[in-house]
# Entry
Amino acid sequence: MAHALAAAAAGEPAERLAALFDSHYSRLYSLARRLAGRADEAEDLVQETFLRAARAHVPLGPTQEEAWLVRVLVNIRRDQWRRAAVRDRHAPAMVSPRSTSSGEAAFLARSTVWRALEALPPRRRAVVIMHELEELPIWKIAALLGIRGVTARWHLSKGRRQLADVLGAHRGEGR
Amino acid sequence: MTVQEMLREADPIRHECAREEQRVEIRRRVLAATDGARARQRSRWASSRVAALAAAVILVTIALLGSRAWFGGDATLLAAVRFEVRLAETTPAPGFQQVKAGDGFLYLHPTPVVTNGDVVSASVMPRGTTYEIDVVFTAAGAARMRQAMAAHLGAPMAILIDGQLVAAPVVRSAIKGDEALISGKFTKAQAERIAKGILIH
# Structure
């Protein structure tokens, strides 16, 4: 990957962007899929991120590139989240799953967990995802998101508590 | 079951097939958007490459929301050629340059902390309705920024383009590792002008 990036760095913008895309698409899609509600939303998110990369200076070097792309992606998601928050202010509250089918129950349980995650602000959600699912250390998360380590740790702690509150309450309802 | 276990169980990546066709389509659309858009940047990428790969770098984010320390100055930034960051004081001192800052004045230290020659790259990034500028410094520039900011907590740091004050964020925290956060406030046009000005050595 480093070789591809180095070769593309001195090449045409299209070549560099292609190398950027091929090097980072999978990582960005995984993050986007975990940040967004649906696969097509995640794809739109990744596409918009790379389109912005096509229009801007992206710092060179794998680490700087990844951090730039991750921050743009999370920022786009934050904008979407804020707009949706205004739009959905009067939407009905989450409905608890009621099902007798085990397959459907498993699906609904997953949905419940994921909707609890969706309730977190995007940057906090990104911190939780990166730590709990991508298993990145705090310093790495902070560097990727361009925030201080103490801020990343605060988001993680707050996010965990919020999830535990929602999911704990849900488990209680199911008894 | 812990929260982490619940998240892993519910992770959509685990329950989803690879979407290779969509990946190819997105790649095609993204690459189609590059026609002509980045040709002007070619020499910039090439010239900054060696420095970027060789230097230990610091990432300074000039964030844009909620700062009262922004003093505008968009009228003269188009032809910006000189970028400087100087420590500033709110009270006068011998040898310090007085500059207008909002309704009052700031007093600039005589020696800049970093200038254009200390910058490897600068890029504009969106942040809500405003924009950020990411500046990557060389190892030497990063070290000077770290040292200067750590000794200047709670006081303003002046960002000058072509000698004009464009922002004077207050240093909120000492840099840890290779990261710093400077808050300002920019429109997209302002951010782009500043990013371009920073890159002119």
The first helix of chain B runs from residue 3 to 10. The first strand of chain B starts at residue 58 and ends at 63. Strands of chain B lie at 58-63, 83-89, 97-101, 104-108, 114-115, 119-127, 130-137, 157-161, 164-167, 179-183.
